[in-house]
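ok so i was messing around last nite and threw this chain in just to see what happens. nothing serious, just curious
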Amino acid sequence: VEITRAGGGLFRQVLVNRTNPFPHGNAWLNGNPIDGVDLAGTLLEEESHGAATRETARFIGEPEIAESDRSPHAITIRWATAQPSDSTAEFAAFYPPYTDRVSDTNLVTQHVITLTNLLAHTPYHWRVQSSAPDKNPAISRDKTICTLPLKQNLLANPGFEQGTGPSPRSTIPGWNKTGALDMRLSDGTWFWGVPPRTGNWLVEGAANASSSEGYLYQRVKVTRGTDYTFSAWITTWMRENDTWKYDVWNDRNRLIHVRLGIDPTGGTNPTATSVRWTPRNYSHLDYSNLAIVTAALADYITVFIAMQGQGGQWHLYGVDDCVLTETQLPPPRLVNAAFEQDCAFAFTILSAPAKTNNIDVCTELGQWSSLATVVNATGQTRFRDITTPPAAQRFYRAVLP
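result:
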């Protein structure tokens, strides 16, 4: 790398390390290799002239979806910016990367974007962006939320409002608990005041310790072969040195998190290999909506909420508003089609995660034949067709068997 500075002068942002931390090469000085020396530094390439020092548009508060703005087939996102700016929301069912967007070019400070034609009780990842003239865009972090269900909630005591006695209550009607974590019904007055999301009660997990691991679960009768979605609202509150502490993502001794799981065989062991889990999630001092989808392999399934942590002084967890319903899976979509360098025809399949997609092909619509079977582990997978004959017309479709 040769670094020059406009207008001349010295460039002092490259550090010389003579302990040779990278053993597979040499640093060079004026065209000559230097044994035992490595360089470290940061190179910044501007997207456009002046972008690195340009002011960024600024959010006023986090973009949010109010409960009144959530329905089975639509959600409305609201946010505010310090400067008049445009509005864009990106979103995707189940997992990023984002596959859809809605935009409004009007420059405003109060932003409202509605996402429509969504599937009921389906998890969506979303984020928003606002751009103002002569400013870099403000981009929110990724968030998740479920649309509201249309079908009956199959869980007993899903919002934890059932029970008797003062707070905290050790018995949680309809649910079982296991593991080394104190889990009880609370009205928001138990350890450190973790509040319910809605209603008067939640399940709170609490440990005044450097480690915690507990599981809340419920076994439910279902229809074998049917797909089900399990969702819940969770919050994590970690304390260290008598103050609130964020998790440290790269330090296993400063992590507390919650996962949702489903055992499609109806087992009640949370450590069984048959349990399918969401990624680990934390939501510091705030509620987030998690969800997982799977097909029942037996006449019962079991839903789990795992609360785990390492390090810190207090581990506190909140769970509220759980939902389990039958699920209408989205039909597969084929996007980003293109010929690749080796002349293979490729496209991305968007579908429900952990599902098998049958790829069919035909040269005349209606005369379909099977081409391949693809396991779509994450909900988005790239398919390459190396059998495409030159100059042939072909139609493709992906089908859930």
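not much to say yet. DSSP finds no helices and 26 strands in the chain.
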